Amino acid sequence: MIKLMPILLAVLYGLAMYRFSAWRTKRELDANSTELADPILKVLMDNMAKALDIDRIRVHIYEIEPVNGLAAPDGRIFITRGFFNKYRQGQVTSEEMASVIAHELGHVALGHSRRRMIDFSGQNAMRTALIMIVGRFIPYIGPWIVNGLISLLAAKLSRNDEFEADAYASALLVKAGIGTGPQKSLFAKLEKLTGARGAAMPAWILSHPKTDQRIAAIEANEAKWSGGLTNA
């Protein structure tokens, strides 16, 4: 029982971190966001809502400057003020912004947002437990090895979620009459908008797939769907 105690403590730590992270995230978003009100985007969101057979899609503006969209664990969808400003300045079209909303809807519908929070807490618990165990056999460098492996696992899980949310968004955009063109055109300009430098980094350490991989996956889905319609 004594040998299992570090693992049990790590699991309890993970559960506590999940509760705390969810509470802190909700508090931050509640304090720093307002509901999006844009007549052009509303038309596109109403089209997507109709395609989903729901009354409306509610989106909030999160008052931070980095360009991003996010889906909260409680199911709410946010666009950052920085991203919305790019749209108001004409650097992002309304259809491209709609593709971001569709992508975040995918994260919510597929359960990614809540699972990511749980995964994050679980990975922290696993990290703590493994460092305790591996550190006994490989002093000094053991914790470095554990941290590296956990980070690679988290990146791979995140990339899988992004591909799934992209596919969901593509299907929704097609059904809503918007199409996947804006989704692909936004990916082509996203690195410049965000200031990211992911193109120079190996794909396996990134939390998001590379642009060419995302566009290729969307086009593969389009070809598959078109083939299905033709066969039907």
Tell me about this structure.
The chain is an alpha+beta fold and 232 residues long. The chain has one domain. The chain has eight helices and four strands, in the order αβαβββαααααα. It has a four-stranded mixed sheet. β3 and β4 form a beta hairpin. α1 packs antiparallel against α5. The relative contact order is 0.12.
Summarize it.
The protein has helices spanning 5-31, 39-52, 81-88, 94-109, 112-137, 142-175, 181-194, 211-231; strands at 33-35, 59-62, 69-71, 77-80.
Please describe the topology of this protein.
Blueprint: H1 5-31, E1 33-35, H2 39-52, E2 59-62, E3 69-71, E4 77-80, H3 81-88, H4 94-109, H5 112-137, H6 142-175, H7 181-194, H8 211-231
Parallel strand pairs: 2-4
Antiparallel strand pairs: 1-2, 3-4
**Tally of strands:** 4
Shape, per Cα inertia axes: globular
**DSSP helical segment count:** 8
Helix content, binned percent: 55-70%
Q: What is the ordering of alpha helices and beta strands?
A: HEHEEEHHHHHH
Strand content: 5-15%
**Contiguous runs where pLDDT drops below 50 for at least 5 residues:** 198-206
Biggest β-sheet, characterized? Answer: 4 strands, mixed
The value of Rg in angstroms is 20 Å
Helix/strand-derived class?
Answer: alpha+beta
The largest sheet has its strands arranged as 1-2-4-3
User: Structurally, how many domains make up the residues?
Assistant: 1
- What distance lies between the first and last C-alpha atoms, to the nearest angstrom? 61 Å
> How confident is the prediction overall: mean pLDDT?
79
